[in-house]
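In response to reviewer comment 3 from the previous cycle, which asked for concrete evidence that the modeling workflow produces usable outputs, we include below a single protein chain processed end to end. The sequence was submitted unchanged, and the resulting structure tokens are shown without manual editing.
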Amino acid sequence: MARSYPNMPIIIPHFGAGYLQEVLHLAWSLPNIYVDSSGSNQWLDWMAYDLELKDIFNKSLKTLGPERMIFGTDSSWFPRGFSYHI
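The workflow returned the following structure tokens.
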């Protein structure tokens, strides 16, 4: 879809939620791919290898640049929004 509509921005939430490598490959090849940082990022716990949020930001910045990264949150306002402490 992103290739068919090159002028339409495609936003992938939660850094791809476990599909970071695929998102970075896609973003590398298509300039209309954006990512956002919303969510609890619990998907990091289910990765087959250790990965920290700072690594996610660094790799995303290196691939996408700051202009294609979007701050996002699933909270209605800070600090409310999560039912458990992070």
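The two ends are 35 Å apart (CA to CA). We consider this sufficient to address the reviewer's concern, and the full set will be provided in the supplementary archive.
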